[in-house]
Each structure stands twice: as structure tokens, then as C-alpha cells.
Amino acid sequence: MDKTERVEEIRRRLQLALQPVQLDVIDESHLHAGHAGALTGKGHFAVQIVSPQFAGKTPLARHRMVYAALGEMMDEDIHALSISANTP
């Protein structure tokens, strides 16, 4: 999967699972060139997501919801993920 496909797949999975009212997925892999994790071919991403489903959830629970939505991508395609998860 190339970088563009990864961003689109991340976006698709998060939209499907969390129905966000705002979603930005940023590929930051270029900022980590030469980093040990970059050698695996996995990417570095930042996600800014706003979803009503986060209401009443702790920050840790919100992050777990994002990880669950991404599933095996966390093992196979994503080396690092920065998450900003908020309610509307």
C-alpha cells in the first residue's frame, strides 16, 4: 500500500467506525526519514478527529477507539500515530 492509499484507508476506517464531523489525516512520514521506524516502510501519521462518539470518554478511551477502528493497520502500516480526538 502506498502513502496515498494508507491515508485514504485510515480516513475510510475512521469515518466508518466513528462517524466524525471533522477528520484530518496527515502523512508525516517525510519528517521521520532516517528514523529506525521509517526503515520498516510503515508510516508516521497524525489524526485530528472530532466525533460525537467521544462524548463522556477519557482521552485514553478515545485513543483506544481510534486504534480499534484502524485494526491491523496499527501493526502492518502504521509505525507512529499522533491523535487529537475531541467532541463537537
UniProtKB/TrEMBL annotation:
One GO process term, biological-process aspect: iron-sulfur cluster assembly
Organism whose genome encodes this protein: Permianibacter aggregans
Protein's name in the database: BolA protein family transcriptional regulator
InterPro entries: BolA (IPR002634), BolA-like_sf (IPR036065)
Highest taxon, organism lineage: Bacteria
Protein family according to the UniProt entry: Belongs to the BolA/IbaG family.
Gene3D superfamilies referenced in this protein's UniProt entry, alphabetically: BolA-like
